[in-house]
Every structure is written in C-alpha cells, then in structure tokens.
Design a protein that fits this description.
This protein is an alpha+beta fold. It has helices at about 5-20, 40-45, 125-130, 140-145, 155-160, 170-180, 190-210; strands at about 25-30, 50-55, 55-60, 65-70, 75-80, 90-95, 100-105, 115-120, 250-255, 260-265. Bound molecules: zinc ion (ZN).
Length: about 270
C-alpha cells in the first residue's frame, strides 16, 4: 500500500504538471471508483490551483471543488500523453483543456477511490475529520499525546490513521527498528526517551523514503512510470532471516493484527 513517502512523491511529481490545467472530461469505467458521480459535471471546467496531501490522501484543489483521491492498496496515478496505450487496470481518465496529456488512474484491486467535495464542505468529510496529525512532522509532544492511554501494541497503534496519518506497514517497521522498539511493546508504556527517539525515527524514515522516491516492492510507481528506490536501502521490512544491519542477528517476522512485522530480536527487545 502506498504510504506517506509514496503519496508525497506522487503529489510533488504531479504539481508542476497539473497546476493551471483545467479538467474538462472524466471517463470512469468502474462505477465504484468515483464515489460522487452526481457532482462530476458541475466540478469540471475549473482550473487546478494546487495539489496537496493529507496523510495518504491526495487533494486536487479546483476552487470551488476539491477532488479527493485515495490510492488504498494498489492505486496508481499515471501522467501520460493521450497517445500512449492505457496502463493495465485503468479505471478513470481525466482529460484537460489544451493538453495532450491525461491523468490516468489504474487500480488492480480496486479499493481506491475518487471523491469530489465542494470546498465549503471539506471539513465535514468524516475521513478527514478522523485523520490524526501528519506523521512527517510528528514531534515527541504530539506522539506522547497520541500514544497516551493506548494499551495496544505500538505497531498496531502506528498503523491507525486516526492516531498518526501517513504510516503503513513498511515505514512503521523501519521506524521501530531505528528507534530500537519492539513492535509488540504496549504504546502506553513507552518511556519519554523512547517516545523522543520514535518521533525522530518516524520523521527520519519517512524523509528517507521520500528522498528515494518511495518503495516499489509491490506495484507502486511514480506518475511517469519510474520505480522508487527505498526497497534497496530498507532496514528490516521483508528482510526475514537476513542479518540485522546493526548487530548481525537474523531479522524475524511476526504477525500483529494479521499484518507481518519485521524486527531484530536483539536490537528491539520486549
Ligand atoms: Zn539488531
């Protein structure tokens, strides 16, 4: 699943392409992808002012409407010339006024969605209301507040978007390894020093992921089709049985709420 670094990479890549362009036509071949078909016609014809990110959600600003795009498990955004063949599993295509390019949305498993919302009603979108603070700028103070009273395993808490927005399975494992915290540690028993280290490790890991253009282990690609490079430099994620980069011990894998967690049994003691 694309996480914060992948979504931010996409947003940064699309910003210079999309800003100023006016969407004039949307073709959607899978009804469930576009959640608000009734708003589509009235939302066309306004130039895109900006493209931003909140957690793992992409926001296309075309005043007076905002287009929300969530890639979920396998969503891909492609920026391609109209004459290029469509990528496999393309379900939605946006064409622009006076442009030979299209924004194409492909999604193998079809869990992702597009939703158009009037700008004035954005604050009422339940998903956004529940979203926690952004993980890219998390501080020890914010983290302490978010973990307070949470007895669940820290790994599970970090995956909860209402606690912190943007982390997924890859970067939460990476951050826990960097902070030397066992993924099963109850969140509410972390010491102030561990919280300090974890806040730093989360920011560090996400920035590293961003700098490397994201992680292309599954099907994530950048809008021009390029792959990210983080997988080559990862610490623990999907490195079961391989030596820990710090101490040499074999990396282990355990299941936490039916997701795999990778950690070093020596560096990350419970
Ligand atoms: Zn180790």
């Amino acid at each position: 699943m694309p996480e914060l670094p992948e979504v931010e990479t996409i947003v940064q890549a699309l910003k210079p392409c999309l800003t100023g362009l006016t969407p004039v036509k949307v073709l959607c071949h899978k009804a469930k992808i576009l959640r608000t078909p009734d708003l589509l016609l009235s939302a066309l014809g306004f130039p895109i002012k900006d493209i931003t990110r909140k957690g793992k959600l992409i926001l296309l600003w075309t005043s007076p409407y905002v287009w929300l795009i969530h890639l979920k498990m396998t969503g891909q955004l492609w920026w391609q010339p109209k004459i290029f063949p469509l990528p496999p599993h393309t379900h939605l295509i946006v064409s622009f006024l006076h442009s030979d390019y299209q924004l194409r949305y492909a999604d193998l498993r079809q869990f992702g969605y597009w939703q158009i919302v009037p700008e004035t009603k954005l604050a009422q979108v339940p998903f956004l209301q529940k979203l926690g603070p952004d993980a890219l700028t998390v501080t020890p103070e914010i983290l302490k507040k978010q973990l307070h009273k949470k007895k669940a395993a820290i790994k599970k808490v970090l995956l909860n978007q209402q606690c912190l927005a943007g982390l997924g399975n890859i970067y939460s494992d990476e951050a826990l390894w960097l902070a030397r915290i066992h993924p099963l540690t109850p969140a509410n028993i972390l010491t102030p020093l561990q919280i300090d280290k974890l806040a730093w490790a989360i920011r560090k890991t996400l920035r590293r992921g961003l700098k490397l253009g994201g992680t292309s282990i599954q099907n994530y690609i950048q809008p021009n089709g390029q792959k990210g490079l983080y997988q080559r430099y990862r610490f623990v994620y999907r490195r079961e049985g391989l030596p820990c980069l710090r101490c040499g011990m074999s990396i282990r894998r355990i299941n936490i709420s039916s997701r795999s967690s990778y950690f070093c049994p020596v560096c990350q003691r419970l």
